[in-house]
Amino acid sequence: MATIEKRVTKGEAVYRVKVRMKGHPPQSATFTRLTDARRWANDIESDIRHGRHFKIVEAKRHTLGELIDRYRIGVLPRKKDAAQQARQLTWWKNRLGENLLSDLDAPMLAEQRDILAAGTDHTPAKPRSQATVNRYLAVLSHVFSVALKEYGWVEENPLRKVSKGKESRGRVRFLSDGERERLLAACRESTNPDLYLAVVLSLATGARRMEILGLRWPQVDLNRNVITLLETKNGECRVLPVSDSIRELLQIRAKVRRIDSDFVFPGRSASQPAQLRHAWNAALQAANVDDFHWHDLRHSAASYLAMNGASLQEIAAVLGHKTLAMVKRYSHLSEPHTANVVNRMNRAIFGQ
């Protein structure tokens, strides 16, 4: 219940409002107009009844910088891509960190989204891809979601009102037969003893670069011919089948493995995996393969699966995608197989 007390100081009247409701701490404020005092009292009573008031108060007590700092300590270390998201959060903190959470709204965040896209925060300006902009928005959106659900610092996630851009279908660059032969030959001749096996494993399994380079011997079961990936990008365990030829390469590798490390590809330090960037770039140059990145080995594996008749569901299972959205980029490569399936069905029904 609200009470309004009129006070006169040096000939000027002010109105002090107190709102007391059972189970909640009292709230008070002072106004020079009675109508403002009554309006404030009604708003506070309504907010308290609907559970909004204290979230609004918390939003006025904390800045975005404070929220990001708390998120970095409590949430970020548990995420797979923590290093990348830390850089993205630093960008947001530099841009808006001094603003109170109560002051952040959709128009303000949309303005920063457009700055991200245009790259006008760089000198000279360097536009970012829509996918990159969406990743920046996604990490901040999760920060607000945690603030809403766990911290009670905000009453809504303002990023829900900021639209994301449509991303391109995605890059599909895979090795032609000639490029593959040249690249594997260059990797085999490399002075780096890890390069050939790492590239072959990537092509044969479609695993990501760090899934291969971070591979440890306890994950390799040569009796069952499988490799078990315990830490993947989507957080789920994935089992990769190992062909006979890959099994032979791993057996040879096991005979000369380092005893001070359980990494299949140990680095200079036994506690770190190998870094193959220089050897990889040298092999690409020697093989005369242009516009090709390590991640394109994964695209190559998926493309070969599609061209050899694998369904989108099967490709998604091999690559570890939860949905088909990411593998639809390979659908055009399976058209000859689909045509053969339809032709066989038609011959069975209608004859030659």
Order of helices and strands: EEEHHHHHHHHHEEEHHHHH
Read across the widest sheet, the strand sequence of neighbours is 1-2-3
Level-1 CATH class name of the largest domain: Mainly Alpha
The CATH H-level superfamily of the largest domain is Intergrase catalytic core
**Amount of beta strand:** 5-15%
Helix content: 40-55%
CATH architecture of the largest domain: Orthogonal Bundle
Gyration radius, in Å: 30 Å
Which class do the helix and strand fractions yield?
mainly alpha
Largest sheet: 3 strands, antiparallel
What this model shows, in words?
By secondary structure, this protein is mainly alpha-helical. It has three domains: 2-51; 64-161; 177-302, Intergrase catalytic core (hpI Integrase, Chain A, Orthogonal Bundle), CATH 1.10.443. 49% of the residues lie in helices and 9% in strands. The protein contains 14 helices and six strands. The longest helix has 22 residues, at 130-151. The N and C termini lie far apart (88 Å). The mean pLDDT is 84.
Quick structural summary:
The chain has 352 residues and is mainly alpha-helical. It folds into 3 domains: 2-51; 64-161; 177-302, Orthogonal Bundle (hpI Integrase, Chain A). It has helices at residues 34-49, 53-61, 64-74, 82-96, 106-118, 130-151, 177-188, 195-205, 209-213, 244-255, 277-287, 295-307, 312-319, 335-350, and strands spanning 2-9, 12-19, 27-31, 220-221, 226-229, 238-241.
